[in-house]
Amino acid sequence: MRYSGIMRIGFKLLVNDKGKFSALLIGITFAVFLMMQMTAMFAGILNRAFSNVTNIGAEMWIMDPAVNTAASAIPLPDYLLDAVRSMDGVSFAVPLFIGGALVKLDSGTYQSVNVVGLDDTSLFGRPALEQGNIQDIYADNAFMVVDDAEFSKLENPKIDTSFELNDHRGTIVGIARVASNGLNGVPTLYTTYNRAIEYIPSTRFTMSYVLVRPKNATAVASIQREVAKLGYVAFTKDEFNKRISDFYTYQTGIGTNILMMTVISFIVGLSISGQTFYTFILENLEKFGALKAIGAKGRELVYMILFMATFTALTGYGLGIGLVTLMITIARYRLPNYAAMITYWNLGLAFAMVILIAGISSYIGIRKVLKIEPFDIFRG
Fold it and tell me: Is the pTM of this model over 0.70?
């Protein structure tokens, strides 16, 4: 390789100064750890915010235009369901109820819950059962409970466990599992649509959403246009997730706070690594001058410094990713409702930030090295 020799020299210069090399690694590792931790928390929050959309699995959701999240539904009039079913391109449409309630447990304590009411005929969006039979949902007072991080708040119910909801008796007939836990930290109960609207007080309108399966992908646009004429909106699953994401990112303090912490982490890493790298260059000016004196070209020294900065940055990146992965793994093991998760986009963001840190640090060093004159080094 053309520059392998000069890069080997740079590597030895870098790792032989253990103090400076360690300081560089610690600064970049700490910055990557903070950036990854912040963005992983945000990704986890968004994943929990999508939980109802993910768990129900409907291809299209029809709702009031003012709805921002699946948990904050605005009731829809009953005629909307019939209107949607009559539209060309609709394979089938069913109602969905999502609402909050307060249940009284056998011990006498009260617990907030999220209740999901599924279409009585199709049970579209039903979760997979760990225990029980799905047909038992049609029994009197029947509910299914989700076995997730909030399960213990209902005192670890079993099949036939009873509770009270608005002076109605409820009975657990199934224990279910879902793909994603909820964001609000409350247990989730599933039942039939009619039972849900009977047990939970509501306004004149009772439907939270209309779930639609289009006949094909080309029918989506026409369904959205027809629904818009009625004064409502129809989103695909991905569009609804984006709406929820935009709400938490731009209309709450969560996105702003995460962004500020990520920027602060970047500045901390840049300041530590930039200052340390500059000090390292100053302390080794004689060596760079000697390399110039024996024939090293400026371009070769630039490649050498770029290699040193990139090697340090990527090593720190790997250490930071490993550290945050270890922390998230331990936290999830100890705290079942811990929401942080590592995704490709926060890995990519942290990588881009690290490359930027390496680039700025290299620029600082390159400017100083290119000004070196061998004559000045030897005269000193």
Answer: yes
